[in-house]
Amino acid sequence: MTSQTSTTELLTALHDRDFEQIVLCRDPEVGLESVIAVHDTTLGPSLGGVRMRSYASHADAVADAMNLAQAMTYKAALAGVPLGGGKSVINIDPRVANRDEVLIAHAKYIASLNGRYIPGVDMGTSVRDLELIGRHVPVVSSQRGDPSYFTARGVVRSIEVALDACGRTVAGARVAVQGLGNVGLHVARMLARADAQVFGADIDADRVHRAVDEIGIIAVDLADVLQLDVDVVAPCAGGGVIDEKTVGALRAAALVGAANNMLSTNSLAAELRTRGIVHIPDFVANAGGLLAVEAEVRDDETGLTERVDAIADTAREVLNRSTAAGTDTVSVALTMAGEIVEANRKHRPYFRTE
Ligand code: NAI
Q1: Do 277 and 248 contact (CB within 8 A), yes or no?
Q2: For a 10 Å CB count at each end of the chain, is N or C smaller?
Q3: Chain segment 281-335, per-residue pLDDT in tens
Q4: Ligand 1 pocket, residues with Cβ under 6 angstroms
Q5: Do 11 and 106 fall into the same domain?
Q6: 123 and 53, same structural domain?
Q7: Which of 118, 113, 5, 103 is nearest to 62 (CA)?
Q8: Structural domain for 102, as ranges
Q9: Site to substitute for ligand 1 among 53, 183, 241, most atoms within 8 A of C-beta
């Protein structure tokens, strides 16, 4: 969907992409304009972050929420967690003066869903914000802190699988990390500790300095990081960074990172395959954070590290099936996730099983 999305296009997208529910929310008194997207609750209540940012149009915010919610369904299914896919987006600059009022107004809309959508931290929101939201909704996640370590751990396991498929090991491998934030810094640190040579870039110069000082990464230009001649490129900043232009400039043997929806369109996965670039889809590699959040909601972290490490098994299966079927890895992973959801379809939607 684009910013020109009409009502008909929205309804078509809702139907064609099999969404359960889209809640468009407004509270003009506090300046709230938000959306809650519940993609699929077959496997359990939908879980996903609350994103707060200003979009060019509200249609863009709705489109982003829908894309992210759908990816959460697949991520949860492939990670084996009993959760569905959801996401919410508040279309406002996170620095707005009455931020708390806006968050509370959004929380009240979430509360009206009676637990079908469990909110968590996402871009533009913090653990403190989720505490505030938690006072108004039945269930909330991200209260115990930042799941980024577990996200990074799953990404590194996936990088190991991709390197293995290229006949390499982490020791001695050259990896370029785009974005040295919560996840990217952990990824860089784990790889450096395993004797990889790590290159990195971030729009925030302080974060680059910290990574150079603390980890010893090699800083590279923002414009070059995705195009380096390395073993792995690991996008850990925003989504859509691999598009029709940047895909052609990739020189790495593998593409594996944390950034949600890193391909601007799924069809680019076929081009990656044609070019022989090993690609582990983001919704496979970055599920560690979701596993951590789900353990938090269940209040049981037993075996969490092992379950995050098992992301390697899923990544390997995706690569193997892709090779066997001659299909790109995103199509394969979507098929695998779809099979898991379909096998449980009789429970859909979540309120039937409450
Ligand atoms: P973050 O906001 O802590 O870090 C992102 C970093 O990327 C920041 O340092 C920012 O300055 C940098 N950045 C932004 N645009 C850039 C650009 N064009 N070039 C280079 N650097 C740029 O976010 P976080 O939590 O580390 O998440 C990173 C990605 O991973 C996001 O796409 C997020 O959706 C995804 N993700 C994060 C999870 C988590 O547990 N935090 C879980 C699953 C996915």
Answers
A1: no
A2: C
A3: 999 999 999 999 999 988 899 999 999 999 999 999 999 999 999 999 999 999 9
A4: 147-148, 151, 178-184, 201-204, 207, 222, 236-239, 258-260, 286, 289
A5: yes
A6: yes
A7: 5
A8: 7-71+84-133
A9: 183
pLDDT at 142: 75
Are 128 and 153 in the same domain?
no
In a domain, 184, yes or no: yes
**Which residues touch 292 (CB under 8 Å, ≥6 apart)?**
147, 149, 150, 151, 301, 304, 308
Residue 117: which CATH number? 3.40.50.10860
Ligand 1 probe mutation, 75, 151, 264, most atoms within 8 A of CB: 151
* Residue 344, domain member (yes or no): no
Question: How do residues 102-116 score in pLDDT, each as one tens digit?
Answer: 999 999 999 999 999
Phi-psi region of 85 (alpha: psi -120 to 50; beta: other; left: phi over 0): beta
* Burial label, 60 (beta-carbon count in 10 A; 0-12, 13-18, 19+): middle
- Domain contains 156: yes
- CA angle, corner 307, sides to 302 and 308, nearest 5? 115
